[in-house]
Amino acid sequence: MWIDTHCHLDASEFDADRDAVTAAAVAAGVTGIVLPAVAVSNFGAVRALAHGNRHCVYALGIHPLCTPGAGQADLDALRQQVAASIDDPRLVAIGEIGLDFFVPGLDAAHQTWLYTEQLKIAREFDLPVLLHVRKSQDQVYAQLRRVGVRQGIAHAFNGSNEQARRYVEHGMKLGFGGNVTFSRAKQIRRLAAGLPIEAIVLETDAPDIAPAWLSDDQFGEQHKARNTPGEVAGVARVMAGLRGIGERELADLMWRNAVAALPRLGTFADIMAPR
Ligand SMILES: [Zn+2]
Ligand SMILES: [Zn+2]
């Protein structure tokens, strides 16, 4: 019924109980989980997880926080592995890629180079992208335009109405997750309530960005609780409330949007589509 369009299921936080976490998500109605990679060193892990669970698909890419130390050899490895897996329907995107201008100590020019080169790989193989956009909305968008990539998801989107509109008009979907469950997240909730419904997909970013109900302290501790892909069902309940529509209708819309952003998900409609 629900698709978690962004979940780091390979993270060490799940080493002790990964199968139970996935089973609980499926039991909660989560029929599709998208696993982005973060570095060449975890490409094998996300691929193996996606091949080991019919509800999971994967993406390959180098995350902005993993760019220190990454270089041409990593881009070559990415390109080679994408080429080798291009006929694998479970490879649905290039990601997680983007720019992070919030975390200190990252070289902006180096990040931008790796991001742009990965956009070119996405374009070359006609794959959508999973974007990490943190204090970098305008810069991530500028390279999307420049390279000409028009399909994918800007995950955990947090920007102005104007920035959101630009992404949506360019063809991108915006991912909403745990942040939207906090009543103090006024701008994110405004976007979630007011954007065209066609612009929205749901995600968890598990194990990060736990929803309000998993957080001890609604005023800053939300990143400390472990999030799981099953929580996308609760995010969906909040979204249905913000939009004033029923969950079943929302599920159909969210499925359609996820397939529009990540067309290869459509291959798995018999497993993942709401019914
Ligand atoms: Zn991210
Ligand atoms: Zn992520």
TrEMBL record:
Summarize where a divalent metal cation 2 binds, as residue positions. Answer: 132, 155
Q: Which InterPro entries match?
A: DNase_TatD-rel_CS, Metal_Hydrolase, TatD-like
Query: Which key words are in the record?
Result: Hydrolase, Metal-binding
This protein's record includes keyword Mitochondrion = no
Among the GO molecular function terms of this UniProt record, one is:
hydrolase activity, acting on ester bonds
Which residues does the annotation say bind a divalent metal cation 1? 6, 8, 96, 205
Q: Name one Pfam family in it.
A: TatD_DNase
Top-rank taxon of the source lineage equals Bacteria
The record's family statement is: Belongs to the metallo-dependent hydrolases superfamily. TatD-type hydrolase family.
Q: What is this protein called?
A: TatD DNase family protein
